[in-house]
Amino acid sequence: MATTKVINDVIDLNQTGNTTALKGCVGTTAQQPTGVEGMLRTNTDLSSDGSNSAMQFYKTTGDPVTSGWVTLTGIAPIPPASENFTTALYAGDSSTQQITTGFQPDFIWIKARNAAHNNISFDSVRTMVGNPSYRLSPNQNYAESNWATSAGITATDSTSFSVKDPGVGGYGLNTSGENYVSWSWKAGGTPTASSSGTSQTPTANSKIVDGVSDTSNWATTTNGYPTKQSVNTSAGFSITAFTKASYGNPCTVPHSLGATPEFIISKIYNIAEDWIVWHKDIENDYYLSFNRNSGTDARTSSIYNFTTVDSNIIETQWTNAVQNWIFYAWTGVTGYSKFDKYAGTGSGNSQSITTGFEPGWVMIKDYTAGGSWWIQDSKRGASISLKANSLDAESTTNYVTFTSTGFDVTGGLNDNSVSSQFIYMAFAS
Q1: Edge-to-edge strand order for the sheet containing 421-428?
Q2: CB of 395 closer than 8 Å to CB of 378
Q3: 252-275 confidence digits (pLDDT tens)
Q4: Integer Cα distance of 227 and 9 in angstroms
Q5: What is the DSSP letter of 175?
Q6: What is the predicted pLDDT for the residue at 129?
Q7: Contact assessment for residue 172 and residue 90, using Cβ atoms and an 8 Å cutoff
Q8: For 291-320, what is each residue's pLDDT tens digit?
């Protein structure tokens, strides 16, 4: 057999009218040869899309999946960031203004950049559009509320949302002379019906998964029931409204992501109560809060503890009476989002944090010593910070530099203190 290498960039093996095909190497897993970069083979021990075999290729280095013999099945494409998350900047005009997102948003977070106004958030599960448009404030423990006039989010469509300023101090959304930033995420779409009671089967259109009504059973719930849910499985994001049924006892809340959440934001929205934030890198017996600057908190009575987080449910313990909760749950998606931690190396030092993609948005929190939830994004400039837990205007207190593979923290006390541990959530640009 000839051993001459063919070195052309592209070899065209097509012959007009010839319906025969090339046959490659076929064998079991045990018969895998010592791999060389670029080798292809068919593995008869595996399956793919109903076939009794699957293609494999060999690679010597890491991302996006692994090294060694990599199977060409079950590898999800990286969701385009522009279709699932976006940052938009706009100047207030004291009227109704349309903000381009590139997709129909399900979770919108707005903050004034040059004025001391509350962070304001809206979501499609609690009624985001219309009169009333229900809001929450991440830096306050307030219950949800709305303005008497048609203000807030007035419309959404496939590429944008419209916002109207309420004309009320402390809640700037579109005030003339003020500059704003909005951060928008896509879930599954807007639920148009509600479920109730203990039935495991969602009411039609109360559970929207990837844009389609899904009446498959919820994961097993206890001490309450989901009322509405919106899920984006490819981007790893879900929003769930849940009603607690009785006093005491743990509750299990389905998230429908099909993977274990790595970052959870939750809030009782019908009364004034702290935001409860969980990250995969803090212990289940502890939690964080947006509206306080503390590090991790634990309640001796297990109030607010996350006791179980898995691929089906979020189990929490709280002793409040019957209340309504909203849960925002994310799981990391290779090339699009990452939720992780790092140890500070000291003020005046810098270190590189690897995400595997170029971030467009990062939120950082010192979860040991406490401090603010610092937010940077590429549209405003990574060195310009806002705080989820404060109404303050933006500042240059933190200095974060986005790179093609992550971000550098450059020594500020708030992002790299030597005695602290930090968690972060990051989304691709």
Answers
A1: 337-343, 421-428, 359-366, 373-377, 386-387
A2: no
A3: 899 999 999 999 999 999 999 889
A4: 57
A5: -
A6: 92
A7: no
A8: 777 766 655 444 556 778 889 988 877 656
CB-based burial, 185-207: b 16+ in 10 Å, e otherwise: bbbbbbbeeebeeeeeebbebbb
CA–CA distance, 261 with 167 (Å, rounded to integer): 38
pLDDT, average across residues 10-30: 67
Q: Single out the residue of 205, 238, 200 nearest to residue 106, CA to CA.
A: 238
Render pLDDT for 352-410 as a digit per residue (tens, 0 to 9).
Answer: 999 999 999 999 999 888 888 999 999 998 789 999 999 999 998 777 899 999 999 87
The pLDDT of residue 376: 94
Bridge-partner residues for 313, per DSSP?
A: 254
Structure tokens at 206: 């109360």
> 324-339 in b/e burial notation, b at 16+ Cβ within 10 A?
bbbbbbbbbbbbbbbb
Length of the chain: 429
C-alpha to C-alpha distance for 247 and 318, rounded to whole angstroms: 9
